[in-house]
Amino acid sequence: MTPDDPARAVEAALFAAEAPMTVDALAQATGVADVSAALVRIQHDYADRGITLVEFGGRWRFQTAADLAHILRREREEPRRLSRAGVETLAIVAYHEPVSRAEIEAIRGVAVAKGTLDTLIEAGWVRPAGRREVPGRPLTYATTPGFLDHFGLASRRDLPGLDELRAAGLLDPLDAITSEVESGGDAA
After folding, report:
1. Helix, strand or coil, per DSSP, at residue 65
2. Which SUPFAM superfamilies does the entry mention (predicted)?
């Protein structure tokens, strides 16, 4: 069964297609014998509209008219996952600020890569907070209002305490055992 208006049938098939279609695929999907003529007609009909019919590599599709593409361009923020080192460093800065790199390393027990602090600064969560008045004058770091905003905190006082973190299951079981042993409690 062939459609009464071949151009409408081809237009509908292209509109509903998940991907660009070849002439053969359009002919098979619509039953239209002269798909090329229908495509020329559709191109003419859409020439002055917000969308146009285009062909790339033998495949046809509708796309936004080139002169209007700037209207639809959107900036899309790509969420980036923070590494474990980044999360640990951020937590240390939040709970101990102002804190130097050496202090962060002492608490974590490993060296802090420069990129870790750079990532936190780039995210707007950590900022340089001045220099400590000790030999070498190390740079210290503190959280920003952006950190508080991102995590929905009114102030640093709203950070959860150890008991709250443990109750939420956010501490490793090994951390809980270690803290019990250090406090003299029974780990078993």
Report:
1. coil
2. Winged helix' DNA-binding domain
Per-residue tokens: 154: 């009114």
The dotted CATH code for 6-72 is: 1.10.10.10
How far is residue 86's CA from residue 131's CA, in Å, rounded to a whole number?
22
**DSSP designation for 18:** S
Q: Where in the chain is the domain with CATH 1.10.10.10?
A: 6-72, 84-153
Mean pLDDT of the chain: 83
Q: Return the CATH architecture of domain 84-153.
A: Orthogonal Bundle (1.10)
Summarised one tens digit per residue, pLDDT across range 155-179 is 778 877 777 767 766 666 555 555 5
Q: Are 187 and 180 a contacting pair, CB within 8 Å?
A: yes
Yes or no: say if 123 and 79 are a contact pair by the CB < 8 Å rule.
Answer: no
Indicate if the alpha-carbon torsion angle 78, 84, 85, 87 is positive or negative.
positive
Q: How, if at all, do strands 99-100 and 59-64 pair?
A: unpaired
Half-sphere exposure (Cβ direction) of 90: Cα atoms closer than 13 Å: 24
Omega before residue 173 within 30° of 0, cis? no
